[in-house]
Amino acid sequence: MKHTRLFSLFLGVVLVACSAAVRPLPDASRSAHFGAGEASDAIEVTLLQLNDVYEISPVENGRYGGMARVATIRKELLRQNPNTFTFLAGDFISPSAIGTAVYQGKRISGAQMVAAMNTAGVDYVTFGNHEFDLGYETLQSRINESAFTWISSNIQYTPSEEGEVKPFWKVVNGVEQPLPEHVVLRAKNAEGKELRIGVFGVTIGTQQPPYVVWTDPMNAAQRAVEQLKPHVDFIIAVTHLSIDEDRKLAQLLPDVKLILGGHEHTNMMFKVGETLISKADANARTVFIHRLRWFAAKKALRITSEVRTVDHTIADDSATAAVVRAWTARAYEGFRAQGFDPDEVVATLSEPLDGRESSIRYRQTNMGATVAQAMLAAATKATVAIFNSGSIRLDDELRGMITQYDVIRTLPFGGKIVEVEMKGSLLQRVLEAGQRNVGRGGYLQYQGIEQNLAEGAMAGGSSQWRIAGKPLDAGRNYWVIVSDYLFSGREQGIEFFNKDHPDVVTILEPNAQDAEDVRRDIRLAVIRYLQRATLRR
Fold first, then answer.
1. Cα–Cα nearest to 280, from 23, 13, 52, 522
2. CB-based burial of residue 351 (10 Å sphere; 0-12 exposed, 13-18 middle, 19+ buried)?
3. CA–CA separation, 510 vs 380, rounded Å?
4. Which of 138, 161, 197, 464 has the greatest number of beta carbons closer than 10 A?
5. Helix or strand or coil: residue 325?
């Protein structure tokens, strides 16, 4: 189960043999601190870290992020130090709005992200849990297209439950090359002295489709450290774990000096023993820059780290920007064919809408309320709206000016919304099943419903649901508007809820030919709701 995410400002730490500060010291200060002889002995490496990047273009109306800006930062760092390596700590193939657009007869499905990363110069990645969203064939295609190296110590492939277990691979010139469990980075200084850094990668176990064999990341990390330690000067990890798991890894394996983490979406830095853990903001709003200085004679490591905001002050790298424009144009053409205008501004938010999985799959959020209110605004009879939180694939917050594209990337899979007249007993069963799905996509967001836990306790322990201020009556009928996927019987734990259930009385489908009937696509319903809410203000 995905752990609740913890958010923190990054902070400076000072270690005994491995020291760090959140802002790099001036060069003069470093030389004075270590002495001229020690400085000449040093080997310097720069690590550029990003994680959880779903958008190739800047977000928040162009204010933050963008792979073309990241590419510019990378080139700046390379000019300063040719021993520069760029890492992305998981989650980039999915979820993505552009990935759901149709190009040349099939969904783009993360091809745009891999193309942008290739051009930007990403060197190393590990799997994020969302890399498994789109199935084996899509994942394998993206791996084959990548110019960067995938590292994984705890993810392997199997064709079936009884099939052979082996590493994932990349096909290069027709030959299958297994993805490495770990790698050794090598760097030299002007005197030719060499530094060897061991790197391994591990991934959280929240998504384990049948073709994935997942090993406990702590066990896998321990094995990787044992294998690397005799051959390297020190070890770092690139992880896509919860912060609690990263802390556990640091406590278990103090030989790991730096953890380049992902999964959380807000920048943070922690110290656990002598190990630093860092995570950047999602969608490349920020990146971490780590400058490592290794003193071979003393076998001492010094790290200075800074979090850098990626905003409009950073120019686009022209080559990466061209790739971004090309893929964006292809996707937007596909969206326009579906009746959307991706560039249109539909609202300006006074507060962020929370679509993070760590929020929306555990509790009612303002983004869930907005989508459900939009469903009710589109309804002809319904007074209650429910939908599965897994419909929201943003795993982020929406802020400021919102365009149609922002709505598309919030609900990338779209789908119609349906009005259903049903018995109260069925509605109660659906709501209770949604409560049991806490932490999963089948956790329900709703409007027109109140949950009174105090009354539920008095009634014998089950939650008490209220509709229009009155207790839900199992014997009466209610009109409810629901997402088509939820009503398909495919949602885990709520498979019983479908058109064939005996307590379903009436079904009102949207008119697919009526341009005014926004029930034909939940995204259109949200767009219209936001537009009208803006006009009312």
1. 52
2. exposed
3. 10
4. 197
5. helix
Q: What is the pTM of this model?
A: 0.83
| SS3 annotation, 142-189 | HHHHCCCEECCCCEEECCCCCCCCECCEEEECCEEEECCCEEEEEEEC
Q: What is the DSSP string of 385-411?
A: EEEEGGG----SEE-SEEEHHHHHHHS
Average pLDDT (118-135) is: 96
Torsion of CA 76, 80, 84, 90, to 10 degrees: -30
Asked if residue 112 lies in contact with residue 327, where contact means CB atoms within 8 angstroms, the answer is: yes
Question: Cα–Cα distance between 401 and 176 in angstroms, integer?
Answer: 46
CA distances from 278 to 7, 239, 241, 462 (A): 12, 10, 12, 42
User: Which residue's entry shows tokens 């959280």?
Assistant: 204
Window from 379-383, 439-443, 457-461, 473-477 with minimum mean pLDDT: 457-461
511-523 per-position pLDDT tens digit: 989 989 999 999 9
Do residues 72 and 315 make contact, with C-beta atoms less than 8 angstroms apart?
yes
Tell me how many degrees the CA angle 420-424-427 measures, rounded to the nearest 5. Answer: 60
User: Ramachandran region of residue 464, left (φ > 0), alpha (ψ -120 to 50) or beta?
Assistant: beta
